[in-house]
Amino acid sequence: xxxxxxxxxxxxxxxxxxxxxxxxxxxxxxxxxxxxxxxxxxxxxxxxxxxxxxxxxxxxxxxxxxxxxxxxxxxxxxxxxxxxxxxxxxxxxxxxxxxxxxxxxxxxxxxxxxx
Length: 115
Known about the structure:
This protein is 0% helix and 24% strand. The chain contains no helices and six strands. About 13% of the residues have low confidence.
């Protein structure tokens, strides 16, 4: 499945420089130390996507591409401007936790059994 990857500095109103296309090769559900390949995952599930990691530097928003209207597939000037996605795409801002103040919430001291 083709997807559009929106990087951290993507803005739909400015230039779309921080956008790339990739192909999801497989979808997995994490199960402890193992992973199970699935063909469908319902909303709300954590999934692992294989094949898109090369295009992501730190954080990204992943949006599906409709192959029929995609500018990534054809270079036609009359192609639809929405890349096959309804409305404009916006990135998800990274989560911020003001109560933590940017400091660690928990610290763990580790000591060897045989020093």
